[in-house]
């Protein structure tokens, strides 16, 4: 993103699971990692006052609320992995490139972050902050939609083979046909992108979702989470099914602490392709108990396995008992690759289609039959 006047570049992690866009900031900085670019330097004119509606929003869950003698708006965010960011709200110009290639500027509110804690500090070596893309009013797409610049639609496509891909805001690059669509749920997490899960299979075997009504569960789409999290019952069922893959070719390696479960092959693994025959795909079936036709999301082995520095293959699905309230399945970055995902806040739906994620294209209307 290019922020300020003159505009300066900042690399941000795209996070559909959080609200606020923030940049590491010389305010001065208490605990900042050495990011990709010099720290953002705010001026007094950039500071958001406590009475601002966006300030009321970010302080909604804070213990310390509005104070009369404060001249700035403090915020604090805690993420699912218990890392955190503290800062103040600021307002500055953001440079944007429109679908037709022209450039425009808009003043947006974002976090000026001066104190980061936890594992977040490790990820900030190559980035400067986080781009919150949730449904909250303060998220960047919600702000741009309130300016009338875009429809409140977000699309991201993360490549399977590299860290490439693309992100767009607005509906100019949403395919008009062949996408799978499911209804967006408003509960239990009002600001997150979630859908109702009917059932989930590993290969041909069903994974029980846990204590949810009518045997149905909730899936949260969270690009900011590195890994995928299952409910306690679904995780235990998956681990039990994975016991059968142990063979001479693939053996559990307890000495590899990269993730809770890693396997050692007869050779250092360089690509998931080399070991995918030992694993089955995940199938998530969406819908509601009233719908006859369900919508499926197919996640291949590449969508839940990762390679460690030791050359082992590790399971990128973790026990989510302590994430949010433990009742949802959270699809993280690892499981969202190789597909274009679209979050349509206007029509309250979530869609996906397989893609090589090389570049967004204006897709023509479907042909007439």
From TrEMBL:
Keyword entries, A-Z? Aspartyl protease, Hydrolase, Protease
Q: Give yes or no: UniProt keyword DNA damage.
A: no
Identify the Gene3D superfamilies for this entry. Answer: Acid Proteases
InterPro entries assigned: Aspartic_peptidase_A1, Aspartic_peptidase_AS, PEPTIDASE_A1, Peptidase_aspartic_dom_sf, TAXi_C, TAXi_N
Whether Protease counts among this entry's keywords is: yes
GO terms (BP aspect): proteolysis
State the Pfam families in the record.
TAXi_C, TAXi_N
The superkingdom of the source organism is Eukaryota
* Domain called Peptidase A1: residue spans: 1-353
Give the molecular function GO annotations: aspartic-type endopeptidase activity
Q: Where is the active site?
A: 15, 222
Write the protein's name.
Peptidase A1 domain-containing protein
């Amino acid at each position: 993103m290019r922020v300020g006047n003159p505009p300066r570049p900042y690399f941000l992690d795209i996070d559909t699971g959080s609200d606020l866009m923030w940049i590491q900031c010389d305010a001065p900085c208490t605990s900042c990692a050495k990011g990709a670019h010099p720290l953002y330097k705010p001026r007094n004119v950039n500071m958001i006052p406590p009475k601002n509606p966006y300030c009321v929003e970010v302080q909604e869950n804070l213990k310390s609320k509005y104070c009369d003698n404060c001249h700035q708006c403090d915020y604090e965010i805690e993420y699912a992995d218990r890392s955190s960011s503290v800062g103040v709200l600021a307002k500055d110009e953001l440079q944007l490139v429109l679908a037709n290639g022209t450039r425009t500027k808009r003043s947006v509110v974002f976090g000026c972050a001066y104190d980061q804690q936890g594992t977040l500090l490790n990820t900030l070596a190559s980035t400067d902050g986080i781009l919150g893309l949730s449904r909250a009013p303060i998220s960047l797409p919600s702000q741009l939609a309130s300016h009338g610049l875009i429809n409140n639609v977000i699309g991201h496509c993360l490549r399977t083979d590299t860290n490439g891909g693309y992100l767009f805001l607005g509906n100019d690059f949403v395919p008009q046909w062949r996408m799978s669509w499911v209804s967006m749920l408003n509960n239990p997490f009002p600001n997150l992108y979630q859908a109702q899960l009917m059932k989930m299979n590993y290969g041909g075997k069903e994974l029980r979702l846990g204590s949810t009504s009518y045997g149905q569960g909730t899936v949260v789409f969270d690009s900011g989470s590195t890994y995928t999290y299952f409910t306690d019952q679904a995780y235990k069922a998956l681990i039990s099914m994975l016991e059968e893959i142990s063979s001479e070719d693939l053996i559990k390696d307890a000495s590899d602490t990269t993730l809770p479960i890693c396997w050692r092959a007869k050779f250092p693994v360089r690509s998931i392709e080399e070991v995918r025959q030992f694993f089955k795909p995940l199938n998530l079936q969406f819908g509601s108990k009233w719908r006859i036709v369900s919508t499926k999301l197919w996640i291949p082995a590449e969508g839940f396995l990762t390679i460690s520095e030791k050359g082992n293959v590790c399971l990128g699905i973790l026990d989510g008992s302590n994430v949010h309230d433990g009742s949802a399945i959270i699809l993280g970055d690892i499981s969202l690759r190789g597909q274009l995902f679209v979050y349509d806040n206007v029509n309250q739906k979530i869609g996906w289609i397989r893609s090589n994620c090389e570049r967004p294209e204006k897709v023509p209307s479907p042909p007439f039959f």
